[in-house]
Amino acid sequence: MHTDALAFGIDEDGETAIFREERIIQARRSAPQASALTMGALHRILRSLLGAAWKPERVCFSHAPPATAAAHVRFFGCPVDFRCDVNGFVCAAKALDARLPKGDPVMARYAQQYLDSILEHPHATTVDKVRQFVRALLPSGRCSVEQVAQHLGMDRRTIHRHLASDAETFSSIVDAVRVELATRYVTTTDRPLAEVADLLGFSGLSALSRWFNGRFDCSASAWRAARRGRMVPAR
Q1: CA 81 → CA 57, 130, 203, 212, distances in Å?
Q2: What is the dihedral sign for C-alpha 136, 199, 72, 78?
Q3: What is d(CA 59, CA 70) in angstroms, rounded to the nearest whole number?
Q4: Which of 60, 86, 114, 192 is deepest in the core (most CB within 10 A)?
Q5: Burial 31-62 (b: 16+ CB within 10 A, else e)
Q6: How many Cα atoms sit within 13 Å of 20 on the Cβ side?
Q7: Which pairs from 120-129 meet CB under 8 Å and 24+ separation?
Q8: Cβ distance 129 to 22 under 8 Å?
Q9: CA–CA distance, 200 with 74 (Å, rounded to integer)
């Protein structure tokens, strides 16, 4: 709530829960140290809430692995994976059902009032909010200005007007988010390119290929090979 640069989410799938961290406002260069610091702080917060005995089953980072992950494993106390789709923790969903050992109903009410006051006076710009919803809606294949407008409680003309005041359009934001996510998925994961196409909201692999060639002047497979130190095949 105190920064528009980060977003956190919890996804539950049966007996497993994933705490994920997403960077909304991206720097020009990837900063693995920033991700490690954020994840380390979140780990400390969760342990303070759930008890010192809590630890994740696995920790995931989207960036490439360091020369050695010994420090990561020592700090988190569990296996650590790199080149993942998200930065986050994997843990048992039942851990979320435990009562907080230091829970205080009075402080909980104050905390709720405080968070409500922040939500009533958001600092995020329309561009930031649209970018966040684009990132969330792309994999669903339903990322349209109408869908985003519905989530924001605006009509499409109002959104276009706000974006234009910051020299942006809905299409430019979608394209920028796709560029950011495409470079991550293609470079730091082994996902099949057909899955990458789905995650970026394309109708299929051919649509991704045309877009990727237009943006990067090479194929996605050539980009992946070049970033991993292999010879780029001739076009």
Answers
A1: 11, 30, 30, 27
A2: positive
A3: 13
A4: 60
A5: eeeebbebbeebbeebeeebeeeebbebbbbb
A6: 15
A7: 123/4, 124/4, 125/4, 125/162, 125/166, 126/152, 126/159, 126/162, 126/163, 126/166, 127/162, 127/163, 127/166, 127/168, 127/173, 128/4, 128/24, 128/25
A8: no
A9: 35
Q: Whole-model pTM?
A: 0.53
pLDDT in tens, 72-127: 999 999 999 998 878 899 998 888 887 887 778 888 887 888 777 766 655 678 88
pLDDT in tens, 171-220: 999 999 999 999 888 887 788 899 899 889 998 999 999 999 999 999 99
- Cβ atoms of 21 and 90 within 8 Å: the answer is no
Q: How far is CA 102 from CA 26, 99, 230, in A?
A: 35, 9, 53
- Domains located in the chain, CATH noted: 6-97 (no CATH), 126-227 (1.10.10.60)
- The answer for residues whose C-beta is within 8 angstroms of residue 7's C-beta and 6 or more apart is 21, 22, 24, 132
Q: For the chain, percent helix, then strand, then coil, each to nearest 5?
A: 55, 10, 35
